[in-house]
Design goal:
There is one protein chain. By secondary structure, the chain is an alpha/beta fold. It folds into 2 domains: about 280 residues, Aspartate Aminotransferase, domain 2 (3-Layer(aba) Sandwich); about 140 residues, Aspartate Aminotransferase, domain 1 (Alpha-Beta Complex), CATH 3.90.1150. About 40% of the residues lie in helices and about 15% in strands. The protein has 17 helices and 12 strands. The strands form 2 sheets. The protein has a 7-stranded mixed beta sheet with strand order 1-7-6-5-4-2-3, sandwiched between helices. It has a 5-stranded mixed beta sheet with strand order 8-9-12-11-10. The termini are far apart.
Length: about 425
């Protein structure tokens, strides 16, 4: 099936007489008549459902759809994108380990990796995503277990050279984890370029309507954990916390996801409510349509901004003069996303004035849904970062993150124009 069809048809297959629409299994528990069968479920010897914290039919159907969209072998839903990022690393790293991460990742991810995970004894080295292979290699240590980056960085909009990052990661025997939230599998499938694991904040384009917080982890099934068994004993040696199961032996290509479910979800429990997964599935059904419209609108808005004399700079890889246009042509030939970063003349003070003058676009701590929204990262999502960290993340004091919705593009442009005329009249 083509990806537009997968958005509709994947994940849930109703049998004769069953509901056409994915049912909501809003139940914490599942009944069995046999103690023995329940025991087999707990031992991971039989597939099925017994407690929603570990698995739920609604959640699993949506996870299967996302796995199919990305071209992976298995997926797991989480309660948020932050949880997905945390689990993706914590599933293969423990105290004393290290990983490498692009410096331009979302501010919340930067804080999670650079502050919170260090408290757990897991160290990280942040690297400039535009640096050479030689410099990337220097970031690796004997205890490095993973490499992480974002397809399209939030909000710097740096386009990751996935093949370069994958090549370096694999030379060191570690997987490349890519956050594909902004691009979505509609515009980029990182597995096709060498990535091993993909994460999403499904809160964004996948849900698309700002109704449900959620996340997802997708495993390509391509990384050979056994070939690097000494580095990943949690996957390749008996897990005494779960009856001595060896995940690579029991589950093969799905080992990574099954370990995440059996250990992390068991112990930490960041599972989405089935109701939220139901809403997410509705969003996924129109994902291909919405992403195309977001990209179409964003290009129109970016072209308008690039010609406006009150705008000091624009970052959008769809513009031919953009720094990342060439990479975008390679990895994102059908469009990148609906997010634009730009600055207004006069710096941070005028940026705030401009945002306050918008009428259609709303100031919200959100991005990538049907409604046009705007945010000042240095004041909001990245305010916990110091000036040096902001610079490394590609966030200048005047940067405005503008998430173009699926309204009529002319209405969005008119809203920008009226605010510029009102707030920046003397520029």
């Amino acid at each position: 099936m083509r990806i537009e069809t997968k958005c509709i048809q994947s994940g849930y297959k109703p049998e004769n007489g069953e509901p056409r629409v994915l049912p909501i299994y809003q139940s914490t528990t599942f009944k069995y008549n046999s103690t023995e069968q329940m025991g087999r479920l707990f031992d991971l010897e039989e597939s099925g459902y017994f407690y929603t914290r570990l698995a739920n039919p609604t959640n699993d159907a949506v996870a299967a759809k996302i796995a199919d969209l990305e071209g992976g072998v298995a997926a797991m839903l989480t309660s948020s994108g932050q949880a997905a990022c945390f689990y993706s690393i914590f599933n293969i790293c423990e105290a004393g380990d290290h990983f490498v991460c692009s410096s331009t990742v979302y501010g919340g991810t930067f804080n999670l990796f650079g502050v919170t995970m260090k408290k757990l004894g897991i160290d990280v080295t942040f690297v400039d995503p535009d640096t050479s292979e030689e410099e990337l290699n220097k970031a690796f240590k004997s205890n490095t277990k993973a490499m992480f980056g974002e397809t399209i960085a939030n909000p710097a909009l740096v386009v990751l050279d996935i093949e370069k990052f994958a090549k370096v990661a694999h030379e060191h025997g570690v997987p490349l984890i890519v956050d594909n939230t902004f691009a979505t599998p509609i515009n980029c499938r990182p597995f096709e370029w060498g990535a091993d694991i993909v994460v999403h904040s499904t809160t964004k384009y996948m849900d698309g309507h700002a109704t449900s917080v959620g996340g997802a982890i997708v495993d390509s099934g391509n990384f050979d954990w056994e070939a690097n068994s000494e580095r990943y004993p949690g996957l390749t040696t008996p897990d005494e916390s779960y009856h001595g199961v060896v995940y690579t032996e029991r589950f093969g290509k799905s080992a990574y996801i099954m370990k995440a479910i059996a250990t992390l979800m068991r112990d930490l429990g960041s599972i989405p409510a089935p109701q939220n997964s139901f809403l997410l599935n509705i969003g996924l059904e129109t994902l291909a349509l919405r992403v195309a419209k977001h990209c179409e609108n964003a290009k129109k808005v970016a072209e308008y901004l690039s010609k406006n004399d009150k705008i000091s700079w624009v970052s959008f890889s769809g513009l031919e003069n953009d720094k990342y246009h060439k990479l975008a042509q390679k990895y994102l030939p059908n469009g990148s996303c609906g997010v634009i970063s730009f600055g207004v003349k006069g710096g941070r003070e005028n940026a705030v004035k401009f945002m306050d003058g918008l009428k259609l676009a709303a100031i919200v701590t959100h991005v990538a849904d049907a409604r046009t929204s705007v945010l000042h990262p240095a004041s909001h999502t990245h305010r916990q970062m110091n000036d040096e960290e902001l610079k490394a993340a590609g966030v200048s004091p005047d940067l405005i993150r503008f998430s173009v919705g699926i309204e009529n593009a002319d209405d969005i442009i008119e809203d920008i124009q009226q605010s510029l005329d009102l707030s920046l009249i003397h520029i």
